[in-house]
Backbone:
């Protein structure tokens, strides 16, 4: 089972950028498509982006398309989320896990707060 640790969140003004990282333990990381998800206060966790095992295919939620970029480094067992042109509605706790079926233990996530 994969253990996942997210990092890189913080407080940023609208229009700013952040780069999130998700470090995974275990030798099977490169076998899985990996996704980023987020959960805002009072809302359910939602899909943000996914990248296939090789990194050659990606897909995004409509709300972040054109602003966020997902990437991965299988040698480092790490998946990234570059977030540009951030909006207050991007404020949430961000998580990573395999996609579509989460096989890792959900980490604590990393808080992203975007001020207007």
Residues:
């Amino acid at each position: 089972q994969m253990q996942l640790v997210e990092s890189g969140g913080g407080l940023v003004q609208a229009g700013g950028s952040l780069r999130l990282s998700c470090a995974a333990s275990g030798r099977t990381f490169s076998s899985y498509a990996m996704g980023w998800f987020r959960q805002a206060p009072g809302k359910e966790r939602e899909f943000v982006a996914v990248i296939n095992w090789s990194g050659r295919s990606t897909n995004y939620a409509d709300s972040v398309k054109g602003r966020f970029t997902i990437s991965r480094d299988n040698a480092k067992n790490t998946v990234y989320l570059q977030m540009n042109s951030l909006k207050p509605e991007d404020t949430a706790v961000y998580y990573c896990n395999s996609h579509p079926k989460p096989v890792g233990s959900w980490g604590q996530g990393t808080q992203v707060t975007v001020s207007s």
